[in-house]
Amino acid sequence: MNNLIKFKVNENKVAVLSLNDPKRLNAFSLEMISQLHQKIKDINNGKIEARCLVITGEGKGFCSGANLVDNSGIEDFSKLDMGAALNSHYHPMLIDLKNLKIPFITAVNGPAAGAGCSLAVFGDLIYASQSSYFYQAFKFIGLVPDASSTYVLPRKIGMAKAMELSMLGDKISSSKALSWGLINNVFEDDVLISEVMKIANEIAKGPTVAYSLMRKLYWDSLSNDFETQLSAESAAQSVAGKTEDCRNGIMAFLQKKKPIFEGK
Prior knowledge:
three-stranded mixed sheet, 10 helices, 43% helix
């Protein structure tokens, strides 16, 4: 089995996952999705101890989308179910990534196209290199946006911009993506990873339980009504308020010290 991802956890418990098929600009094969998903599951079930996850790509690109070579041997395309791989591989991975128990950052280091664009904009925080771009390429092969794009994009940039990105199919530069509010910041190519790691290391020192609750609150807010969301906030606050991190944070505040969070 090829290692289609690279994975490591540093001393600050920042997990860095790199898509690793640079010759194909890290195009998603089903095997790559499976390997990516396994690491996400290992983080969620505690087999891997991490307090922040960074996903990026090896080489000159983040991800060029689905690897169409997987289907190149099919002679009768009328018998091909293009949604099957979404149900079997992409969707289970994305659901577990949505429910990740730690903050998740994408470091977009080049082209992010198709399903690769979907993953790139899925991060809690999204940072891109100056030369990177975002590309909803689906229309050019007669397909619709997938891998969560039609859910995430209108909620991040509004319906008009989401339609523009998908129907016109223009490549959106990192600077335009920033102006649209799609991403958080742009860095020069040669410092992207180092700058993202500074942010990830700082986040990893934060209140892990509160981060997990925070992620759930924001995701749930996309479908909750106002009263339901207020109830969710109070329930989450009750949980957060009983953590060691909260106690340490309050004591540090009262003593005018910088808090030290243990993630408990």
